[in-house]
Design brief:
EC number: 1.3.8.5
Enzyme class: oxidoreductase
Shape: globular
Oligomer: single chain
Pfam family, one: Acyl-CoA_dh_N
Number of strands: 12
Number of helices: 12
Strand order of the largest sheet: 3-6-7-10
Cofactor: FAD
Family: Belongs to the acyl-CoA dehydrogenase family.
Structural class: alpha+beta
Helix content: 40-55%
Length: 419
């Protein structure tokens, strides 16, 4: 199997990167604290999955968490750290092994992204998008395309961005206007994409564009490589969170791309986009889960050490009840995400609805958990010296992207109402 399996095997054989199985790194003001048994993220996993999880927790603790605040405040895109992550197999977690991927399941991938997100939610979210792009090429591309693009994506020698949203087409993906008109052995692209994670920094752009008539059946999927004449980028957006990854418009002006870069057949783009997003929704929900898990631990630790009215905050029954609710919602979110991941892996009929439910429920509940954790910190929670505020900021956008939560409700209800 891939390098992630090799890394897990290395750990099993005694090469220790620093034990975080059952532990979670926390910022300097709280130090290391054991994870409460009731929210242990390894519960229900088999031994191999626990090893993958440990590799991810170790990497999050040692390579991501110490730099999380700096990446956020200076808006740094941590290329070298992500390439280190790729050495452990995180560049192509569910890409097939013959092109350099780790070949893991959707459930395994969720476990990995949750663990990484405890170290830096923003960076992990970008890694998850990169993985989604690599999987689209691996799953829908021909053998030549798979072997051309996937190996460098799996090592993160090259980075990928997903280009679906447009200034006038967000939730309504079928109304995409970016055109790709065929001229001989090339497509000429014109149009623009908005809010593209990695825009300007990524090397590979997986673009949904219109090669045919109106509606979803007129869309195709084309890979555009950085440096292609006619490809340009807008200004770097200033965001509330997700600051360790750049966000820009991606602009096409008579951008000529070889027909050989079309993934799948003409008219298959909408299907490819939706299939990718089903997994993307599991991924982003898992990133929310990691942020919430970290926030619960930070809140619990703060309640133990912070004193008011002559006693630790942990003695306050209201805060005890609040912490209990946070833990319960965290575990419920995790169970739903992992259930949806298994359904997606098995290609079950209920997979789309379950992925939508997982994304809807987990992103909303986990953001609420992060927000409550900030409140428990009082004024300290509003300071950037304390990590809890960053988990809250970085997880807020998860309710909007990969299909807004309003769209998730439409997909769920549509599934329920169909005959």
């Amino acid at each position: 199997m891939g390098s992630l399996v090799a890394a897990a095997t290395m750990l099993r054989c005694g090469s220790q990167l620093g034990c975080l199985h059952g532990l979670l790194w926390a910022p300097a003001q709280t130090g290391h604290r054991s994870v409460a048994f009731c929210i242990d993220p390894s519960m229900g996993l088999n031994e191999e999955q626990k090893r993958f999880q440990k590799v991810a927790f170790d990497f999050a603790a040692q390579e991501m968490a110490p730099h999380m605040a700096e990446w956020d405040q200076k808006e740094l895109f941590p290329v070298e750290v992500m390439r280190k992550a790729a050495q452990l197999g995180f560049g192509g977690v569910y890409v097939r092994t013959d092109v350099g991927g780790s070949g893991l399941s959707r459930l395994d991938s969720s476990v990995v992204f949750e663990a990484l997100a405890t170290g830096c939610t923003s960076t992990t979210a970008y890694i998850s998008i990169h993985n989604m792009c690599a999987w689209m090429i691996d799953n829908f591309g021909n053998e030549e395309q798979r072997h051309k693009f996937c190996p460098q994506l799996c090592t993160m020698e090259k980075f990928a961005s997903y280009c679906l949203t447009e200034p006038g087409a967000g939730s309504d993906a079928a109304s995409i206007l970016t055109s790709a008109k065929r001229q001989g052995d090339q497509y000429i692209l014109n149009g623009s994409k908005a809010f593209i994670s990695g825009g300007g920094e990524s090397d590979i752009y997986v673009v949904m564009c219109r090669t045919g008539g109106s509606g979803p059946k007129g869309l195709s999927c084309i890979v555009v490589e950085k440096g292609t004449p006619g490809l340009s980028f807008g200004k770097k957006e200033k965001k509330v969170g997700w600051n360790s990854q750049p966000t820009r418009a991606v602009i096409f002006e008579d951008c000529a791309v070889p027909v050989a870069n079309r993934i799948g057949s003409e008219g298959q783009g909408f299907l490819i986009a939706m299939k990718g997003l089903n997994g993307g929704r599991i991924n982003v929900a898992s990133c929310s889960l990691g942020a919430a898990h970290a926030s619960v631990v930070l809140a619990r630790n703060h309640l133990k050490v912070r004193k008011q009215f002559g006693a630790p905050l942990a003695n306050n029954q209201y805060l005890q009840f609040q912490l209990a609710d946070m833990a319960t919602r965290l575990v419920a979110s995790r169970i739903l995400i992992r259930t949806a991941a298994v359904a997606l892996q098995e290609e079950r009929e209920d997979a789309v609805a379950l992925c939508s439910m997982a994304k809807l429920f987990a992103t909303e509940e986990c953001f609420a958990i992060c927000n409550w954790a900030l409140q428990m910190h009082g004024g300290y929670g509003y300071l950037k010296d304390y990590a809890v505020q960053q988990y809250m900021r970085d997880s807020r956008v998860h309710q909007i992207l990969e299909g807004s939560n309003e769209v998730m409700r439409i997909l769920i209800s549509r599934n329920m109402l169909q005959d």
